[in-house]
Specification:
The strands form 2 sheets. The protein has a 5-stranded mixed sheet, sandwiched between helices. A two-stranded antiparallel sheet has the order 5-6. It folds into 2 domains: 43 residues; 122 residues, no CATH class. With 171 residues, it is α/β, with parallel strands linked by helices. Helices cover 44% and strands 19% of the residues. α2 packs across α3.
Length: 171
Amino acid sequence: MLLGSPMIKLPRDAAIGMAATAATITVGAALVSPVVAAVILRAGTENYAQYGRLLAGEIESEWRQTSATPFDVLGGRFVLVATTAFYLRNRVSIYSDFSDYLSPWVGASRFAHSGIAMACPAEDEDCMQKLNARCVGRVGVRRREVELTPHWFGIAGVPARFVIATVPPTR
C-alpha cells in the first residue's frame, strides 16, 4: 500500500530487497514461534491465562455434580474468570472480583435464583476470603481444590492450584 502511489519512484533492486527482507522476517518468525511458545509455557503467563481452558472444564464438571440447572454465574478474580468464561460451553455472567460495583448485573437475588460457581488461585488470600464468605450458610455447597498443569505438544507448563466452589440455586 505504501509503495503503490504513482508518485513514489523506487528502483527495481530496492523493491526486490524490501520483498526479500519482509519474506525473511516472516519465515524467521514462523520458525522461532514454537520455541517462543514453549518458553512462555514453561515460564508461565501473567493473570493465569494459560489455565482458563483447563479450569473451565473442572468448573463445568463440578457444576454438573452440584445442580441440574444451567450454569449462569462465575465469580472470582476478574482476569481469571474473564479468561475462563471464554472456554465455558454456556454464556455466563462474570462476577468480577466478587464486587457488586464491578458487576451490578449479579446480585443476591441472582445468586438465589441461579446459584454461582467460583474459582480462586489457592494462594490468593483475598480471593479465598471472598469465596469463603459467599459459601457461609449456604446449603449444598461443593468445594474442591485442583492442581492444573497446561500441556502443549508434550511439554508441561507450570502447575497451579485453584479452589473451585459451587453454590446451587435456592429454589
